[in-house]
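Researcher: Batch entry, complex prediction.
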Amino acid sequence: ARMLIEKINEKCFEKCIPKPGSSLSSGESLCLTNCMQKYMAAWNTVSAAYITRIK
Amino acid sequence: ARMLIEKINEKCFEKCIPKPGSSLSSGESLCLTNCMQKYMAAWNTVSAAYITRIK
Amino acid sequence: ARMLIEKINEKCFEKCIPKPGSSLSSGESLCLTNCMQKYMAAWNTVSAAYITRIK
Amino acid sequence: QQKSKFQTNVHNLTDMCWSKCMTSKITGTAIDKGENSCLENCVNRFIDSQKTIVKQLDHMGGRA
Amino acid sequence: QQKSKFQTNVHNLTDMCWSKCMTSKITGTAIDKGENSCLENCVNRFIDSQKTIVKQLDHMGGRA
Amino acid sequence: QQKSKFQTNVHNLTDMCWSKCMTSKITGTAIDKGENSCLENCVNRFIDSQKTIVKQLDHMGGRA
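Model: Structure tokens for the complex:
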């Protein structure tokens, strides 16, 4: 799951932490958790659509 | 020509299909065809300029 | 230092030469030199912070 | 190896369609109906687009 | 090989944190205090963020 | 192998210069005069820029 972790961190860091401060705020932590779940849901949707299309 | 196809699709999908709908509209299809021709023309210009410069 | 050169050129060309003309202007050349120094300073800061964090 | 090619495609499609479809602020863990259909359409139109390009290239006699 | 992995990480972090922190016009060769602390925070928050994601994934039973 | 390095360079230059020069809406198949000279200048200035950087690095005693 190395590539998934890299992609999630890339996308969610960009979205949740536009201005990195001296520590993760609780709002940033919550955003990261939500974003991660959302990214995995998006991955599942894309994966299913791709399988349907190519089979 | 695999890399050319990938690059054209990346650039032209971005430009011609900003909001993907339930099928390709005729405007989107036309844009893709035009964009593809344009990308190949750009590739030729860049290639010629690069050859001239490095030879 | 090949990767460093590639990254510097990518970032500094983007920043210093938004509209490429028929030759490098003196302003663009100065910007490139400054940008290069700045990028290397940023590289050093990032490198030091990363080493401190992972050790 | 075929599995790895499939996974790489899904990773790249998710990356690209995420940027296209998930533009709003993150407020919860679920993707809503509009985002979901945007993601599905994104995958399908991307493949349509690729087929259009390949067909045109063939039509031109594979000059590229 | 470990050296090369380290260098690749530093190159990628510099690339990403440069885009996030060095948004102003280039006017000299030095990075100012604000830019410097932004770069340091960028590295540290990026690693924090990665740890948060890995921990959550483990918590979910490594379902991914 | 040299051919493949050349092709990769042309692909990357086209990608980058396309983003810089072809910013208007797609309305036909031809690239106009302004776009064409932008593309040519983009290639040449990019190589100039690279040479400037390499020269400066050498000047600094290859400290990087």
